[in-house]
Design a protein that fits this description.
Length: 248
């Protein structure tokens, strides 16, 4: 939160009349439309990617115990799996994974397109399920043991955040797309909204005018007082962040 004294010292945009403002907006809107159309073209290319077969019998652990990758589809044709990084205890959890996962709420829209969304946690099930409950998340939640991760993420580094998309044809499973790092911003709406504001994300790498607020390099962007930001509201609500003994 920026106090009033600090706010008075921040840079601000030039003040102009309404017509001048509208002219600038219209010029920017033209660029925004080009950006939107390019995004549509990239999505079209994504839909035309080839796919690679994956063993649908790869084991996972869910609420009911041992299941398979095929089971995680819940009968739908497509599956979006978010690979959640794992740390212990709760304050040490990945702030990025907590950030994006906290924004996944209403799944009826993806379900209506024959798509299941699920989290594949890269940690032991009992502790990770307790973290899910502490955070109040409702999406399907699975643990992927190390051997399963090696098979699912072949050629990629185990332990990073990923979004991986799958297609089911009968009992055959295929991987159709994956992304990591900033690619997982597909799950985010906070940054998209902040990008619309005058000060943006307020991060050091952004191209902003002099005097605009920005967080310092090396400062956690998604942590407050040593925890992922979203944890504090759960603690205030009385939820326990005790994940039990570490399984690693």
């Amino acid at each position: 939160m920026i106090d009033d004294n600090t706010a008075d010292r921040l840079g601000t945009p030039e003040i102009v009349d309404r017509d001048s403002f509208q002219a600038k907006i219209e010029a920017l809107r033209a660029r925004e439309k080009v950006h939107t159309r390019e995004g549509d073209a990239i999505a079209a290319a994504r839909r035309r990617l080839p796919m690679v077969k994956v063993d649908g019998a790869i084991p996972l652990i869910g609420t009911q115990g041992a299941v398979t990758l095929l089971d995680a589809f819940e009968g739908r044709r497509m599956l979006i799996a978010y690979y959640f990084m794992w740390h212990h205890p709760a304050p040490e959890q990945c702030e990025g994974c907590t950030w994006v996962t906290s924004q996944v709420r209403e799944l009826s829209y993806v379900h209506s397109r024959d798509v299941t969304y699920a989290t594949f946690c890269q940690g032991p099930y009992p502790e990770s399920a307790r973290y899910r409950d502490f955070m109040g998340w409702q999406m399907p939640w699975y643990c992927a043991p190390r051997a399963s991760l090696d098979a699912l993420l072949v050629g990629r580094r185990v332990g990073l955040m990923y979004i991986v998309c799958y297609l089911r044809l009968g009992s055959d499973v295929f991987e159709t797309y994956w992304t990591t790092w900033r690619g997982v911003e597909a799950m985010d709406n906070n940054y998209r909204l902040l990008d619309l504001t005058v000060y943006g994300r307020q991060e050091a790498w952004e191209d902003s005018p002099a005097g605009w607020p920005r967080r310092l390099e090396g400062v956690d962007r998604m942590r407050v007082d040593g925890r992922p930001t979203a944890q504090w509201s759960r603690l205030k609500a009385g939820y326990s962040d005790d994940l039990g003994p570490s399984g690693h």
